[in-house]
Amino acid sequence: MASWEWRRSVAHAAILVDVADEHALTRTELLRDTGIDPVALKTPGAEISAGQELAMVRNLVTLLGDPPGLGCEAGMRTRATTHGALGMAILSSPTMRAAIDVSLRYISLMTSFARVWHVDHGDEIWVYVDDSDLPEDVRAFLNERDVSALLTNWFLVFGVAPPVKRGEVRADMRSRLVPLLEAFDIPLTEAAEVHIAVFDMSDVDHPMPHASPLTAQLYEEQCADLLQRRGLCQGVAGTVREVLLRQMNGRITQEDVADRLHMSLRTMRRRLSEEGTSYRRLCVETYGALAEELLATGLTVEDVAYRMGYSGAPSFSTAFKQWRGVSPGRFARAFGDRHRTTAPH
Fold it and tell me: What is the pLDDT of residues 69-89, one digit of tens each?
């Protein structure tokens, strides 16, 4: 189950308000049970949680019956500049290739709630979109919004059609996405698990009309700061962490993880190295942090071992010592002592 506590720009929510207005929905109806302060929707730089934006989307699709094309209305209103610092980084990139690169590296700052990653294949980039964690009742709307926003802005930013050689769309989303993609003459097949778009990168070294490398660097640094502050997973490392957590109750090898990401093991290791980490380090960080959180709740070592998929406390204790340098029992006692010391009397 995905967590929706990470932060989002209020700009996406403001567009939902515009769509609601077009359909004669009141702001009260759209914001019901979201916990969003209406003032925030008009405050530059304001942020809401991903869960709050999803609650807005749920109200919108529930009240209007989720008709095909509703997500497109939101996507077509989305502009590159809607994405703030990322939009400026894209527009000021020196070349189209650089603009695509920065878009993919900071795609978590765009409209999508899905997990998105990419793999380089020479003159092609394969973009994978896993929307399996999205709530069923808003999934179609969110997919429509993402695809229409991409297609609309590609024309506005680059002045040409997106160089998508082919796409793969899962069966449950075909009725909503195929008409959008076929309008751009993109060859389509059915996807087995995740959506895939294959981009042709053989002719994308054209200069951008508003190129400014120093400006692009400045805004890219702001994008990196935003990712960290909003708690967003970035790049292949973020996707690997999510795979590890999803397979918590069934041990998984790094070969299996690479296969899930549609990469060779060598490619995954190289990408992780480029991001300043490694598979082993991610395992230590991910499982170690999770074990600490569970122990801090007061669960016994045996309970934590069971929840994390270990056969028993001894094997879990051995792993925890490798992660944190102390036994889980000692960590739990130390945490309890600190909590009692700092608790108000």
Answer: 999 999 999 999 999 999 999
Tokens 């990712």 label which residue? Answer: 227
SS3 83: helix
Residue 47 pairs in a beta bridge with: 9
Residue 1 has pLDDT above 50, yes or no: no
Whether the Cβ atoms of residue 299 and residue 291 lie closer than 8 Å to each other: no
Dist. CA 318–CA 314, nearest whole Å: 6
Q: Enumerate residues 6+ apart whose C-beta is below 8 A from 122.
A: none
DSSP 8-state code for residue 69: T
In whole angstroms, what is the distance from residue 291 CA to residue 273 CA? 25
Cα gap 98→120, rounded to integer Å: 14
Tokens of 12: 């996406």
For residue range 116-169, list pLDDT tens digits in order. 888 888 899 999 998 988 999 999 999 999 999 999 899 888 888 899 999 999
Rounded to whole angstroms, the Cα distance separating 185 from 165 reads 9
DSSP string, 161-187: ---EEEEEEEGGGHHHHHHHHHTTT--
What tokens were used for 89? 């980084």
Tokens of 263: 């990469």
CA neighbor of 242 nearest in space, from 119, 120, 116, 105: 116
Task: Find out whether 205 and 95 touch, Cβ atoms under 8 Å.
Answer: yes
β-strand partners of 191: 170
Angstrom distance (rounded) from CA 145 to CA 97: 24
Q: Sign of dihedral through CA atoms 295, 260, 154, 104?
A: positive
- Please state, rounded to an integer, the average pLDDT across all residues of the chain: 87
Alpha-helical (H) ranges within 65-135 are: 70-77, 85-91, 96-105
Query: To which residue do tokens 């896993």 refer?
Result: 130
Encoded tokens for 148? 């229409």
Cβ–Cβ under 8 Å, residues 235 and 271 = yes
> Which residues are bridge partners to 200 per DSSP?
124
pTM reported for the whole predicted model? 0.72
Question: Two tokens at 192?
Answer: 């087995």
Nearest to 229 by CA among 39, 8, 20: 8
